[in-house]
């Protein structure tokens, strides 16, 4: 459609154009021919560009799809909680790395028997925790609560029962320095009582068994307050058919020696 307009006032930025029925239109001066002045008549062709409309629509929809894929196609997943190990007085719980999608993390909390036990420190790095001080042969329920900017997700409740004193399957031993024959005897004894030996000091290591207080593994066990005991402790557990106190079997506790001359009758 061709429209003829009369130039009214010319300004550096905006030019006033008059329609045949004396209506005023403000029009960008930069779009008009040069050297126009008041009284000039300009012809402007007006038409709808459907091709560019379609291209702009397609571009906009593509942008929407990219935003949806980046921020709306997935959402934070509920944590999946598992029991890694249980003993008479403790449990080790673990979970997969948390999935946040495009959300930001607020907190990851552990609940015990429906009550908040505390927040997990460094939840993006830590995927397990040890809970101690539990009662013997007692049932507990645990679940995780993940709070994000996209909402709150809770894991299924995990029910765990601590072991009886006669259940030795939760004993998880890391070994240190000891003679080869002692290590062989220890391995057989551990198998007989249903316990297990693992490589390296881990979060579920319950006892560090060694005959010498040295080495990197021993240092880590001491640093993590894991009981460091002599192999005789495992023998005592086997002979008594129950978990035995470690007090008399600590590595730094003197073994009872032969009676001195003064003690002989």
Short description:
It comes from Hypocrea atroviridis (strain ATCC 20476 / IMI 206040) (Trichoderma atroviride). The chain has 265 residues and is α+β, with helices and mostly antiparallel strands.
Notable features of this structure?
disordered C terminus, OB fold (Dihydrolipoamide Acetyltransferase, E2P), alpha+beta, Immunoglobulin-like, 3 domains, 265 residues, rod-shaped, Rossmann fold, 4 helices, four-stranded antiparallel sheet, single chain, five-stranded antiparallel sheet
Please describe what this structure looks like.
By secondary structure, the chain is α+β, with helices and mostly antiparallel strands. The protein is 20% helix and 31% strand. The chain has four helices and 16 strands. Strands 7, 8, 10, 11 and 12 form a five-stranded antiparallel sheet that branches. Strands 3-2-1-4 form a four-stranded antiparallel sheet, with no helix packed on it. A four-stranded parallel sheet has the order 14-13-15-16, sandwiched between helices. Helix 2 packs parallel to helix 4. The radius of gyration is 39 Å and the shape is rod-shaped.
As for the CATH topology of the largest domain, it is Immunoglobulin-like
Rounded to the nearest angstrom, the distance between the terminal CA atoms is: 130 Å
How much of the polypeptide forms β-strand, as a percent range?
A: 25-35%
Shape: rod-shaped
Q: Describe the sheet with the most strands.
A: 5 strands, antiparallel
Any idea what the CATH superfamily of the largest domain is called? Answer: Immunoglobulins
What class, by secondary structure content? alpha+beta
> Based on DSSP secondary structure assignment, what is the total number of beta strands?
16
Structure annotation, total helices = 4
SSE string: EEEEHEEEEEEEEEHEEHEH
InterPro entries: BRCT_dom, BRCT_dom_sf, Chs5_N, CHS_Export/Cell_Fusion_Reg, Fn3_2, FN3_dom, FN3_sf, Ig-like_fold
Domain BRCT: 163-251
Organism: Hypocrea atroviridis (strain ATCC 20476 / IMI 206040) (Trichoderma atroviride)
Protein name: Chitin biosynthesis protein
């Amino acid at each position: 459609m061709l429209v003829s307009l009369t130039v009214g006032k010319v300004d550096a930025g905006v030019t006033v154009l008059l329609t045949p029925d004396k209506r005023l239109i403000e029009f960008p001066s930069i779009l008009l021919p040069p050297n126009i002045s008041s009284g000039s008549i300009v012809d402007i062709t007006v038409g709808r560009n459907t091709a560019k409309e379609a291209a702009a629509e397609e571009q906009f929809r593509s942008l929407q799809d990219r935003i949806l894929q980046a921020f709306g196609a997935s959402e934070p997943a509920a944590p999946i909680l598992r029991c890694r190990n249980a003993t008479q007085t403790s449990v080790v719980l673990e979970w997969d790395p948390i999935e946040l999608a495009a959300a930001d993390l607020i907190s990851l909390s552990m609940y015990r028997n429906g009550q908040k036990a505390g927040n997990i420190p460094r939840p993006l790095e830590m995927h397990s925790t040890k809970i101690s001080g539990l009662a013997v042969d007692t049932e507990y329920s645990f679940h995780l609560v993940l709070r994000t900017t996209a909402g709150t997700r809770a894991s299924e409740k995990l029910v765990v029962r601590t072991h009886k004193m006669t259940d030795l399957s939760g004993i998880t031993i890391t070994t240190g320095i000891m003679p080869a024959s002692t290590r062989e005897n220890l391995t057989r004894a551990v198998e007989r009582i249903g316990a297990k030996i693992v490589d390296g000091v881990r979060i579920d290591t319950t006892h560090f068994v060694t005959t010498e207080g040295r080495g990197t593994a021993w240092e880590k066990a001491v640093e993590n307050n894991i009981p460091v005991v002599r192999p005789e402790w495992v023998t005592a557990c086997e002979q008594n058919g129950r978990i035995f106190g470690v007090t008399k079997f600590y590595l730094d506790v003197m073994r009872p020696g032969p009676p001195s001359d003064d003690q002989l009758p």
